[in-house]
Each structure stands twice: as C-alpha cells, then as structure tokens.
Amino acid sequence: MGTLDFYTNPQSRGRMARWMLEESGAAYETHILTYGGTMKSESYLKINPMGKVPTIVHDGKVVTECAAICAYLADAFPEAALAPALNDRAAYYRWLFFAAGPLEASISNKTFGFEVPAERERAIGYGTFENVMYTLDKRLTESPYIAGNHFTAADVYVGSQIVWGLQFKTIGERPSFQAYSERLASREAFIRAHQLDDAATEAS
C-alpha cells in the first residue's frame, strides 16, 4: 500500500510509533535520526519543522505526534483491526485523547517538579496528578483494555506511557497498571518492536 517512511530515534517516543507500525503489519523503511544532528537538518525540518521524532510519511502524507500516528495507522491499515467500528469509537477516542492530554501533561509536570498551586488546579485542565492516576486506575480495573474488551491502537499509546511509567517510576505501582503492562508486553508486535529498537540503540 504505497511507501511508508518512519523517522525515529530508538531512545525516544518513536518507540510508540514503532510498536504501532509492527501491530499494523505495514511495510516501512526506518530512518534513524540523531538528536541535535539529523533531526535538525534542513531536509528533515522540511518534513517536520519541530525537528523531533517520530514522524511517518505515508504516500507523501506527513503525520507527526504519537497519538495521531497511532490513530492514522489504525485507519490506514484496517485489516489489522486496531480501531473499533466507527459507531463504537466513543471510549477509543476518549482514552486516546485522555492520554495525549491529561495523562502526558500530568506525568511530565510531576517528573520535572512542576507543582500546580491548589487554587489553580481547575485552570490546568487535568486538575491533579492523583486524580489522573485514579481515573486511569478505575478504567483499567473495570476493563482489560483501555477502550473495552479488545486491544486497539489506543492501547499502544496509553500502554506505552504506563509501561514506561512503571519502568522509570513516574507513575505509582497499582495492580491494574501492572496487570495491563504485563498483558501488553506479551504481545508479539510489542516484543518485535522493542527488539528492533534495542538493536538500533546498540548499533548507534
């Protein structure tokens, strides 16, 4: 189905996109970029002016941002069944964008020591880190996958953040998080993607 170029660095959020590519079954060509080097090259900045990874270019169409890449690939390669039917996407969209907004923002702020003043919690959008963790924990206690009973592209995005959060201790260790992480890490595409990125890290 045309050409698909994947721009990444194995020590970046590109690991999310790599996992999604492996889940989709798409054939793609990998381009490893360097921080401060080829990521800031004139040729790459024409593709992604942010000078960051990951980026995919599918038949000339550029997609950046991990959540968008996951959603796009699920639609571009429907045979992989990584997105629910159009009339059943409420939870899929809800949790995909919950992770792209409140979850990522709250983890980033906590990691870098940014404390939201109590009187400004309503203005920040996610309220508190504790409330975000409670909300995610509640969902994963009720459901085996983030959008329901079946694995979707939303699990690649949400799951990556939970797997990394547990590994680097940026989120609390809760039974629901641990069980979800183990469920995802056993997937063949997850294992394959991590092997590819680990090999690329060793080669760099």
Word description of this protein:
By secondary structure, the chain is an alpha+beta fold. It has 2 domains: 4-81, Glutaredoxin (3-Layer(aba) Sandwich), CATH 3.40.30; 86-189, Glutathione S-transferase Yfyf (Class Pi), Chain A, domain 2 (Up-down Bundle). It has helices spanning 14-24, 42-47, 66-76, 90-111, 121-124, 129-142, 153-167, 175-185, 188-203, and strands at 4-8, 29-32, 55-58, 61-64. The protein has a 4-stranded mixed sheet, covered by helices on one side. A hairpin with a 2-residue loop joins β3 and β4 (61-64). α3 (66-76) runs antiparallel to α7 (153-167). The chain is globular, with a radius of gyration of 17 Å.
CATH class of the largest domain: Mainly Alpha
Termini Cα gap: 30 Å
Which structural class matches the secondary elements?
alpha+beta
Please tell me the CATH architecture of the largest domain by its name. Answer: Up-down Bundle
Radius of gyration from the CA trace? Answer: 17 Å
Q: Pick out the low-confidence regions.
A: none
Q: For the residues shown, what is the average pLDDT? A: 96
Record the strand order, biggest sheet.
Answer: 2-1-3-4
Strand content: 5-15%
Total number of strands? 4
